[in-house]
Design brief:
Layout lengths: L13 H9 L3 E4 L1 H10 L16 E4 L6 H15 L5 E3 L11 E2 L14 E2 L5 E4 L2 H4 L5 H4 L13 E6 L14 H9 L5 E10 L5 E6 L3 E4 L2 E4 H9 L4 E11 L3 E10 L5 H19 L8 E4 L13 H8 L16 H14 L4
Parallel strand pairs: 1-2, 2-3, 13-14
Antiparallel strand pairs: 4-5, 6-7, 7-8, 8-9, 10-11, 12-13
Length: 351
Amino acid sequence: MFEGKPVGTPDASTYWRLVSEYKVNQMFSAPTALRAIRRVDPNGDLVRKFDISSLRSFFWAGERADPDTVSFFSKVLGDQCGREVPIVDCFWQTETGWPVCGMQDTHKKVLPGSTAKPLFGFDVCILEDAENIEAGGSVSSVSKIEPKVMKDNELGMICIRNPMPPGTLLTVHNNDKRYLAGYMEQHPGYYTTGDMGFRDHDGYITVMSRNDDLMNVAGHRLSTGTLEQAISGHPDVAEVACVGAKDSLKGEVGVGFIVVKGNVDAAKEGARIEKDCIQRVRELVGPVASFHHCFLVQALPKTRSGKVLRTIIRRILNGDDKWAEKVPGTVEDINVLYAIEKIVADRWTPQ
């Protein structure tokens, strides 16, 4: 087990040095760590300095793995090893105790951006979002409605049909009512993960975003993960986080924060890249996204485990002057949030 930054110790080759030194054959890490490595080493040059031929597979979890990052490391690691190194994006939660979705056989097709198929014991279903069932309805009123199963490739709430398999939480500490209200009542007969995604015709599950990260843009429900996927394909972008901000006309609009790769001159190219990203969303997602605001930042605010603090960014955009009180103690660097607050104050006006 290794704890520490994957970059700056002393460079972005730490992971590959460890693989070479200890003949590691399987790795487990977070997509955020790999995006940080790619930012500093955008061409994968540091990987080529080490013998990583022992590596057979690479498992990711903790946050959505965007297809562009998966494809990049699949190629770089495959080229260095002389064979394919499957990158398996797993989906699980603290509450589930073990992975819900993942690649049961690493020789099968890896679909970049997807968490593959449900694992043994989990009957995963994509159900209609409760907010679509009854606008403004309470949990109790929604729970009386039989949930609708979404068609292939339709975005919905990722749920697990009861009973849950062994190893999952049966309650939260001393609070059965909170467990039932938070996980079991929104869709009767199902455990509600709180994540949005879709199932394709092969049964692969793709996680797009948390339900809290969905935006309602002029009546259209959009996933911030869809916006991030469009932006992450830009050749100069290393990391991106999109959130929905209040808008008096459309309800919410998407706002993006991007970190460029280490070989890009942010001072000279920043304005162009911001415009490019806005255009990419328009072309790949559509004008309905109403995406007109994209800001270049030095870093994204994260917890030490790699979770991007999108909720705090949203609070800053919406003018909450007490956002700092909501920052979790696990924040990696709170100064990153203060830097975003300054950018927002200079370039964004809450609507």
